[in-house]
Amino acid sequence: MPSTVVILGTGGTIAGTAKNAADNVGYTAAQRGIDELVAAVPQLGEAPLELEQVAQLDSKDMDYATWQRLAQRIELHLARPEVVGIVVTHGTDTMEETAWFLQRVLAPAKPVVLTGAMRPSTALQADGPQNLLDAVAVAREPGACGVVVAFGGLVHSAHDVRKVHTYRLDAFSSGDAGPIARIEEGRLRRHRLWPVGSALGLARINFDPGSWPRVEVISGHAASDGFIVDALVGAGVHGIVVAAPGNGSLHRALEPALRRAVTAGVPVWRCSRCAGGSLVGSFDDKLPAAPTASPWQARIDLMLSLLATPG
Ligand code: ASP
Q1: Residues 177 and 261 in one domain
Q2: Which pTM does this prediction carry?
């Protein structure tokens, strides 16, 4: 029976340390190796685990080279018959972006479970050890698939998950969709199906990360105008995602600049800056609604679609 779980470390607060155990915010992320994090959870037991340090960074500094390497390592391990699933320890700040990138590129048939912590490993009540234990339980769950986030006792799909809190231990939410499952004492109580999708494939990203298209997110707001859009187009941006208020409404001084960008060959996708809900209704073909609700996911989708476009 295949039973190996591969745990890939990338850093984050889960691997962070503070000088004072009572300090949950004044710490340095990405200080402890994945071997130390696993050694701190003896409850992971005897079942086979393999550990690999893919990166060691604060996820606020996540970059395309790390995404590319992570996707390559995951694909390689998932192809091994003895591997049932992968866990990735990751900072919380950009976890939802990494999760969506991996889902779009790999759409794995085995589970790839991202987890992390809101408190450093030195905290009086660190949340990392329980999250890691839970994530391994999800990676071993029969029938699980796709990229998910296991955090604070919940399992979220890469499509729906967002970091919604700066400080609380239950910092992630799936919004309207709700979590896929709850993790209770190592067992899953499932509410909905595991995520499936079609993979774009590693070939899509097998280019020098320094040459990936530049797609920027801008926001619409009171007193918006075309200043930033014209500056981006002038600087050679390849795509723009606009996080617009409400149901994707555009300030009358911003919209003409976005149309000028499209005329100049820069695709513009619109999203809502609201924390919940998707754009509802039909939109102008030139300034279409993005395929995903979150501007940060849309930025990834637009970038990946431009990677498929020659030249
Ligand atoms: N800045 C940290 C990171 O994203 C925050 C965290 O992990 O909670 O790596």
Answers
A1: no
A2: 0.97
The domain that contains 266 carries what CATH number? 3.40.50.40
Domain assignment present for 198: no
CB-based contacts of 1, cutoff 8 Å, min separation 6: none
The atom number, within ligand 1, closest to the CA of 94 reads 4
> Looking at 13, 98, 115, 292, which residue is catalytic?
13
CATH number, position 121? 3.40.50.1170
Residue 171 CA: which ligand 1 atom is closest? 8
Question: How confident is the prediction along the chain (311 residues), in pLDDT tens digits per residue?
Answer: 779 999 999 999 999 999 999 999 999 999 999 999 999 999 998 789 999 999 999 999 999 999 999 999 999 999 999 999 999 999 999 999 999 999 999 999 999 999 999 999 999 999 999 999 999 999 999 999 999 999 999 999 999 999 999 999 999 999 999 999 999 999 999 999 999 999 999 999 999 999 999 999 999 999 999 999 999 999 999 999 999 999 999 999 999 999 999 999 999 999 999 999 999 999 999 999 998 999 999 999 999 999 997 55
Question: What is the domain range of residue 131?
Answer: 4-190
Ligand 1: residues within 6 Å at CB? 12-13, 29, 58-60, 91-93, 116, 118
CA angle centred on 56, ends 52 and 58, rounded to 5°: 140
Per-residue H/E/C for 114-183: EECCCCCCCCCCCCHHHHHHHHHHHHCCCCCCEEEEEECCEEEECCCCEECCCCCCCCEECHHHCCCEEE
Ligand 1 atom closest to the Cα of residue 58 is 9
Same-domain check for residues 25 and 172: yes
Chosen domain end from 159, 190, 221: 190
Q: How many domains in the chain?
A: 2
Reading the block at residue 256, the tokens are: 């003409």
Is residue 13 flagged as an active site residue? yes
Is 153 in the same domain as 243? no
